[in-house]
Amino acid sequence: MEIEIQLTNEPIGEKISPPSAAGGCGAWVEFHGVVRGEENGEKISALEYEAYPEMATREIRRLLEEISSKNPCLVAKVIHRLGTIPVGETAIYVGVAAKHRGEAIALLAEFMDCLKQDVPIWKRRALPAVSANVNLRTSGSGQSADSHRRLQKVLTLDDAISEIESRCQPLPAVRVPLAEAFGRVLRETVSAPEDFPDHDRSTRDGFAILNDDASEHFQIVDTLHAADWKPRDLKTGQAVRIATGAPLPCGNLRVVMQENAERDGDRIKILRRESGLNIRRRGEDVKAGAPLVKAGARLDAGKQALLATAGCAQPLVSPRLRVCHLTTGDEIVPPDQAPKPGQIRDSNSILIRGLMQSFPCDLEQHHLPENFEAARQLVSTLNLQPSTFNLLLVSGGASVGEKDFTRALLEWLGFEIIISQVNLRPGRPLIFGLKGTRVAFGLPGNPLSHFVCFHLFVAGALAKLTGHAASKYLRGKLADKLEDAPCPRETLWPARLEFLNGELRLRPLKWSSSGDVTCLVETNALIRVPVNQGSLAADATVDILPTAGMLDTGN
Ligand code: AMP
Ligand code: MG
User: Fold this and answer.
1) Probe residue for ligand 1, chosen from 333, 340, 344 as the CB with the greatest number of ligand atoms within 8 Å
2) Do the beta carbons of residue 452 and residue 427 sit within 8 Å?
3) CATH number of the domain to which 393 belongs
C-alpha cells in the first residue's frame, strides 16, 4: 500500500487532492475530523494537539499496514494538524483508496478507532470558549499559547524550580504510631503538655538537706528512688537519701553528693558541700505550652525522642509515599550481568533506591522495553495508573531521540507536561508533569544527570509533597580552583565538602561528562556555577547545594 503521512501546524484545507496512485482505484473514501464546539459538556473554541512527530508518523504507518493486511487497500493519505485548532477546522484528514469501497471504509473505521490509543498525538487541552477566542484573536498570547511556548522553552534553573514548587502541593497528613514516623515530616507543631522536668529533681545520688542547714551531722529520715513521689518537709539536721532523677520532697533544698558524705547507719556526716545545688528545676528544660517540634520538621531520632517525652504517640505526619521508578533503554542490563558490547549496567535504579531512603516510601522499580507500544503494554500490566502512586520517575528517554518516549508515556498516563527542558549542565532534558496531586519526572539517563536532577528537582517536589521546606543553597568558599570553560548552561558542579586539618574545605571534583560516575564516590555537594562563568578562583565564594552523604566526613 502506498502511504502518505503529514503532521502539520498549518490548517488542513477543505479540498485535498487524492494522491495520483489513487486514480483508477474503485473507491476513494475521505474522512475529515472537525473540531466540535463542545468538550465534556463545556463550550470550547479550540483544541490544542501535540505529538511526538517521528514516533507518531512511524505508528500511523505501522497501523495502516497492519489493518491493510486484513482489509487490502491501495493508497492511504493521513494529515494530522498540531497546535491550536479552532472549532470548525479539521484536526485530522484521512483518505483511503481501495478496489472496493467496503475495504476502504473498513480500514478507515479501524484506523480511526486505533489512532487515539496507539499513536502519540495528544489532545493537550480544550480552550474555553471566551478566553480561547481572546487567545486566538490576540494571535496566541493567552493561556494555551503560553503553555505551548513554555513547552518549547528551555527554562532557567530558578524558573524550573519555582514552577515545580508552586505546582506541587502537600499531600494530606496522616496520624501514625511514633515508631513509624522516622523520616516523615511533622505536620502540626507539638508543644510541651507540662513543664519539663515536671518537678524539681535531683541530678545526683546523694542526700537532700535544707539549703541553708549548716549542720555537720544529719539523721536520714527517708529514702527516695527515681520512681518515688513522697512530698514531706525537712527540719534542720534531717536528710533524705535520694537517687538521681528522684523528685525532691519539698522546696528550699540542696543535694549533697554521696561521695561527699560519710554514712554510718541512718546518720551521715557532710564532708563537703558542692557549690551547685545538684537540682534540675521544674520547667528548667521547657515550660508547659512552649513549642517542642515545629510543623514542617523532618522527624529524626532526636525529635522522635522529644515527641515520646511529650507523650505524642501518634504524631500527625506526611503520608508514606508510593513511588515508582522506571528505567528505559535496551542497552541497560542489571548489575549482576556482564554487559555485551553496546550494553551498560543499570546504576540509576540503585541510585534512586538509595536516595529515596531519606523519604519514607514504598518504591517500585521496573525496566521498560525501548518500544513505546511494548512499554505501554508493560505499564498496563504493572497497573501503574496514576491513582496508584504519588511520584513517578522515569529514567532516560527524556530527550528528543528517535526512541525517547518518556514524554509520550507520561502524556499517555494522563500527565500534563509542564517542563520539558532546563538550561542546566548536567541534565538538560528534564520532564516535569502533573496529574492532580500526582507528580512525574522524566530524568535524563546519564548517572550524573540523574543524581543532579534528583537533588535539584525531585527532592524539591518531595519536600513540597511532604510539607517540608525545600533545601536552600549554602554559601561556601572554594578550596581549589574550579577549572571550566564558559558554558551557556548553568552548571551544578560535583564537589566534596570536607574537614581537613580542622577546616571546612569545598573541593570541586573532576568530571567531564554527564555519563561520569566516579565523582559520585566523593560528591556530597553541588556547586552552582552561573551561566558563562568559566573558571572560579580558589577562595571564590559560591552557592552550594548539599546532597546525600553531606554528614559523611570520612573517605
Ligand atoms: P538517555 O537519557 O536515555 O538518552 O540515556 C543517556 C545515557 O544514559 C545513555 O548512555 C544511557 O546508556 C545511560 N543510561 C540510561 N539509563 C541508565 C541507567 N539506568 N543506568 C546507567 N546509565 C544509564
Ligand atoms: Mg535511552
Assistant:
1) 344
2) yes
3) 3.40.980.10
**Model confidence band, residue 471 (pLDDT cutoffs 50, 70, 90):** confident
Neighbours of 136 (CB within 10 A): 19
CA distance 40 to 29: 29
CA of 489 to the centre of ligand 2 (A): 22
Note whether 260 and 386 are same-domain residues.
no
Q: Which atom of ligand 1 sits closest to the CA of residue 349?
A: 19
426 lines ligand 1 (CB under 6 A): no
CA–chain centroid gap for 484, Å, is 30
> Which CATH number belongs to the domain containing residue 185 in this structure?
3.90.105.10
Residues lining ion ligand 2 (Cβ < 5 A) are 329, 396-397
Q: For position 114, what pLDDT does the model report?
A: 87
Q: Indicate whether residue 346 lines ligand 1 (CB < 6 A).
A: yes
Q: What is the pLDDT of residues 190-208, one digit of tens each?
A: 999 999 999 999 999 999 9
**pLDDT tier for residue 525 given thresholds of 50, 70 and 90:** very high
* 329 Cβ below 6 A of ligand 1: yes
* Tens digit of each residue's pLDDT (9 = 90 or more) over 474-487: 999 999 999 999 99
Strand partners, 28: 97
How many structural domains comprise the chain? 5
Contact 263, 205 (CB under 8 A): no
| Residue 133 domain flag | no
Tell me which residue range forms the domain holding 91: 2-128
